Amino acid sequence: MRSSDIFKNKYLKGDKIADRKVVVAISRIKIEEVGRKKEQLPVLYFTGKDLGMVCNRTNWRTLTTLLGDETDDWIGQRITLYTAPVEFEGETTMALRIMPKKPVAPPPGAKSTAPAKTEPAQEPSDNDTDPDLAPDDANF
What we know:
mainly beta
C-alpha cells in the first residue's frame, strides 16, 4: 500500500503520471479556493478523470499560447501532461507541466474519451511518434 493511496488528494499531482506523458481532453475549467493560502486559482478537469489539475501561471501561459485566450474554446481540446523537476519551498519536486505542442490525433480505431468538439484527426508523422506517450490510460 502506498501513502498516496491512504491520504487521497483532491487535485492531480506529478506522482500520478510519474515519468510519462499523458494525453487528456479538457472538460471544464473552474476557479476554486486552493492551498494553505486559500488562493482563487483555475482548476482544469479532464474527460473521464476524477482529479482536477490546479493551473499555475506557467501552465496557463502555455495553454493560452497553445489554445488561445478564450477559455471557452479550450473545452474538448486535447493536451499532453508531463512532469518536470522544479524548486518549491526549498525542495525539488516533480511539477505537472503542459507540452507546448498539441498532441497528435490517436491512430484509427484507438479508444478516445474526448468529446466531439476536438480537432479533425491528423496523420501522425515520424517526428510525432513518442514511445513515452500514455494516451489517456493514467488513473487519476
